[in-house]
Amino acid sequence: MLEDTSFAIHPGNEQQSKAVLYRDIGSMKSYKQLDTGYFFQCENGQVTIQFFTNSIIRVVMNQFNEPKLNGSYAVIASPEYVDVKDSDSEEQVVLKTDKLNVTIQKSPFRLTILDHDGNTFLEEGERGMAYRENGEVTAFKKMSEDDHFYGFGEKSGHLDKRGETYEMWNTDVYAPHNPETDPLYESIPYFMTLRNGRAHGLFFDNTFRTTFNMKADNNGYSFKAEGGQLDYYVLAGPEPKSVLQQYTHLTGKMPLPPKWALGYHQSRYSYKSEEEVRELASNFVEKDIPIDVIHLDIHYMNEYRVFTFDKEKFPDPAKLIADLREMGIRIVPIVDPGVKKDAEYTIYQEGITQNQFCKYIEGDVYIGDVWPGESAFPDLTEESVRNWWADKHEVYTSIGIEGIWNDMNEPAVFNDTKTMDVDVMHRNDGKPATHRELHNVYGLLMSKATYEGMEKQLNGKRPFLLTRAGFAGVQRYASVWTGDNRSFWEHLQMSLPMVMNLGVSGVPFAGPDVGGFAHDTSAELLVRWTQVGAFTPYFRNHSAMGTIYQEPWQFGEDNEAIMKKYIQMRYIWMPQLYSLFYQASVTGHPVMRPLFMEYPEDQKTYNINDQFMIGNNVVVAPILAPSVTDRAVYLPAGQWIDYETGVQYEGKRAHLIHAELDRMPIFIKQGTAIMQGEWTSNQNKNPHHVQMDVYAGANGETYNFTYYDDDGETFDFENGAFMELSIEVKSTTNAVVVTVSDQSGHYKPAYGKIHVNVHGLHDEQDVILNNNDNVAISLVK
Predict the structure, then answer these.
(1) Which residues are the active-site residues?
(2) pLDDT tens-digit profile of 151-174?
């Protein structure tokens, strides 16, 4: 009760610290080779080392039994054959592949993983793997003074996570998100280490409440879980992009989203009637402000019963959806897991009679209080329940809905613990486990059920799914928003490293609520946040009831014009963004990137929190504080061109850039290119004109990139209905040469040809276009 007052630091509240006693794994007694690795018997437990690829090594410790190697919710890859040579001496065992060496010190059992050049990825010292009698497992690793840490999923604070402690336990947090607010809604127990330009990663595959301590001392870090096995993967990199490819090889990559999902989304808690939604949509169309999606929060339902509509406020949802579709707008409704306890409610009836709900081990259905009041929760750890839940989405898909918004799926419950009782027993596909073990995967499994159900029901169209909670691998099914932020400048500032670290954690489709959810926004904050939102992967304006409305026209014509400009800019940049989303679906590389991902050798990029990159050649440097019109911008190596003014800036240094309220600084790297479309209207969002903007570079500069397009809506691209162009831009003293060297797929876009516009040509330079026979590109004079 007094936690938020000075009483919290009363001297009498000090706790006497007690030493935590861990039992070390002990010395190695014996080992043997397995099909995909090696098994080690130690004094106090067993360890298995698996080689998933030449660059991915798995370490599993079980203090009681032989390590279990199956059953992960996150990992979808299987170990490949890797040629491993082992050698045994009195003091150590060495396992060697063509890329890595694993050295096992025998007494006590300690691991070191390094490459053939002596670069260390993981090293244990005085302490290694251990456990406590209460079931807790832990690992201690050495830390270099040059180590910088990134990832950890959805965490507040700065980009570099060194010196912090993070907990993984999905939690509904409405209180303001401060740098110390932890945990939040997503649990992704993974991080990347960057050390002197080389990167490696570690993924701790444990679903219990886990903790990463990156500040114990300057010589080491640790991670632990309340139960289960110590099961982690070491990803050898050595480039940041390689680490992400290795991590997403294990946990999967995002599916290519429908193009409309990349557009502008408008939401509020809540638009409470069909009349209000129609007026909202008409305003966007009449004002020529782009919009693809209107979200419906919980008030569209009949007293918050999922899979229902309030027929008084939304009398004909099918017609509403059809009419809005004619305007170029889709509806995405919210779906929560809590099912109202109501004997006359069909979903509750089925859940009880068909045994679909979470129960205690004694057989009683767990009932928790959420929006509908007393509610039951589907046991989504069971395949038959996931199928049942998936089928229920036909209520939406049958009337033209193609996207769903999952909320409250931590699962959130209105009680002191904020969630389900941890002794609820999940059926877990024949392997019963408590909620204490499976809490963190509930949101992931809800996403899986929802996405796969929608995919079946949409007859070849791609679904869109937005989720609040998730676990490692959530990118396979859903995009993520960063939860209930507030209309504070500090939250705008914090959103950049949050979204960048989600991207580093394998979740490229992410973003905050633009303008802030709670509290009242201001005109200046909303303008500046909309500018940022135009370049964050997920772009939604969302606000809470009781706060000022924050649609783009709510703050006068001048501010509306600026926001309209940047929302339209989102669509002008859509060809570039869509190509980057395609690359994310193939490689796992994020769309929105921290600068260190492209410039790992440049230590000045290691903790830049207020800038980001779009792809590998665009730097965005927004204004993130009130009344500011000048800011320092650090540009990495190369020459950079201001997107709006054309002014050239030298790299590897900081510049003072002026930006009035109507401008956000964007820089394109010289010698590269971007793809641009056009804004036509809400009813017709497919561009009739696509342009390649080439920025002439210095003699000898070569830039290669892939341009991708398809129908943006169906899965036909899986059968060849796509266009993928390999393009090279080469700058010489005499010419800028643009070459389309390869084309894949048989999709023919409506815009027909791609126009090439070259910026910054010198007087002596000409432009040479080398067309692929099947691709028309032409020069814009």
Answers:
(1) 407, 410, 484
(2) 999 999 999 999 999 999 999 999
